[in-house]
Amino acid sequence: MSRPSRVRDKWREKRWYTMVAPSAFGNVEIGGTPAANPKYLVGRKVETTLYAISGDFNQIHIKLYFQVNEVKGDKAYTHFAGHDFTRDYLRSLIRRGSSRIDGIFNITTKDDYMIRIYAIAFPVRRAKTTQQSAIREIMEKVITRRAKRLNFDAFIQECVLGKMGSDIYNKAKAIFPLRKSEIRKSKLLAQPTA
Fold first, then answer.
1. How far is 65 from 72, CA to CA, in rounded Å?
2. 3-state secondary structure of 79
3. Suppose 159 and one of 31, 90, 142, 183 were both cysteines; which one would form an S-S bond, judging by CB atoms 3.0 to 4.6 Å apart?
4. What is the distance between the alpha carbons of residues 187 and 19, in angstroms, rounded to a whole number?
5. For residues 94 and 100, is the Cβ–Cβ distance under 8 A?
6. What is the per-residue pLDDT across 16-53, written as a single tens digit (0 to 9) for each?
7. Any bridge partners for residue 147, and if so which?
8. CA 149/CA 147 separation, integer angstroms
9. Where are the domains positioned within the chain?
10. Strand 178-190 versus strand 75-85 pairing type
11. Which class in CATH covers the domain with range 94-190?
12. What is the pLDDT of residue 7?
């Protein structure tokens, strides 16, 4: 009877790499991941919350997505791939007898990054279709103007940290009273080719 060959333990061959957030998020460590070869890490996505980076509990509902683009030593450096709100937070914003105004826009930043932006606004009560369209136009104007002026890192910070949402709120409330306005989601579509 032949002896069974020893099974290779693939876990023992793997090394742990520390994932690092991009400079726009302070180059903080956002987790660890194992890999047998560093080249397998490039393209790998990681999800975290803004709370895990900032320590501010008020930002726990914001999910951030990063993608590994470079490995140096035992560190895997990432770039921003998008953000999103948690489902329960979005659900908490919806009120009966009120509208929900969504706007989806593809924009290009000053440094040629293409991003899809999902803006959302919640009026105090139900808004007419014409008022909703006017608010959507304001969303688009604010977002595209910002994109033309700002580079990718600064633009993303304004989206995620709420500055852009509050600017939309301040301009749109002249058309119809709003409860809240935010950039609920973003997604990186394309990076400039070097």
1. 20
2. strand
3. 183
4. 20
5. yes
6. 899 999 998 999 999 888 888 888 899 999 999 999 99
7. none
8. 5
9. 15-85, 94-190
10. antiparallel
11. alpha beta
12. 59
